[in-house]
Amino acid sequence: MTRKYFGTDGIRGRANSEPITPATVLRLAMAAGRRFRRGSHRHLVVIGKDTRLSGYMLEPALAAGFTSMGMDVDLVGPMPTPAVAMLTRSLRADLGVVISASHNPYQDNGIKLFGPDGYKLSDDEEMAIESLMEKDDADYAEAEALGRATRLDDAPGRYIEFIKQAFPRGLRLDGLKVVVDCANGAAYRVAPAVFYELGAEVVPIGVRPDGTNINRDCGATNTALMREQVVVHGADVGIALDGDADRMILADESGAILDGDQIMGLIARSWQRNDKLRGGGIVATVMSNLGLERYLTDLDLELVRTAVGDRYVVEHMRAQGYNVGGEQSGHIILSDFGTTGDGLVAALQVLAVVIQEGRKVSEVCHIFDPVPQLLRNVRYNGGAPLEESKVIEAIQSGEASLGDSGRLVIRKSGTEPVIRVMAEGDDDTLVNGVVDDIVTTIEQVSRP
Predict the structure, then answer these.
(1) What CATH code is assigned to 258-365?
(2) Which residues are designated catalytic?
């Protein structure tokens, strides 16, 4: 069966256009409810969202769908994606639902589903839900068995306490000035509170959501404001979250960026020293820098690569027993604490090392020099350009030029008609030339 609704990370699209319409989302909730309405207990669904205007439209549609299937609904309002995953497990719920398009602009929205174990649904479960969405027999609950929808008012406090438990006991952030950019998104209330309660002086930015400014000129995908504020306020560190706070990017005291590769390397080294690291290394994607791989090799650790997408990282971690994984973009999964990427948990692990070592963030966290890496996106007009002989030859030529001292990754985007061309190697000029040749060839074969 070909996927009609689900993509690489739930269902996503432009708000009020298919499939992100109230009617389709209602059908999604009814199908998911039917799929997970198992056993004789009173069934429960946790629904959270970010701060997009369209969340007001989609939240009641989801609630209506689930309650019509006889499932109770706990509405937690704007909360980070990892908070919903945590609450799903904590409340023994049958499902967790997040209304968010993560780092996308406010015009987009999406739906992410978590199973009762707090993990994102498998491909098989998503396919089963899609199949049920196409059926006419809704299997509604009887009138006396309808579900109830209520607000879980203490959800932020529960999540804040959960996050603080991830910080080593006996440590505090006293004396540390932290700029926290919440991207005008889901963490705008909880993130500043976490760092404040642990003793830091907090400079919050991106904490005035208006429904349309999520991720706009702020957050993990646009760090200029955070970097600027670190320097202006003389802060020790900057932390930029994305719209649903499942990923983050750091800046040191000078405003220099620390991406997910640096963060994963630092945590791996710290946990190895404390005998906490499992699996003999970490799990990352094909996009992680070769410099990280070399750094881990020097520590006698392995870098295992998966396809792009945090769900693939998590799947491999679970299957092979790793407890550290993530993406260069800032999704950091620490399975000792949670089931999905959590920007706040990851940030606290880094700050714990900074406090313990008593040195500047720049001295602690810049652990390797990245190998020159270039990523370019090229749009194509239908067809299969990667199967064209000229493109295949250009890719083979690029691989030969880079040899053993570099890497070439070519992949289609899962959300738009774009091919991503990434190359890295010790010779910056060579890397640029390889990418240019492949991009030019793809553009030539894609012209109408």
Answers:
(1) 3.40.120.10
(2) 102
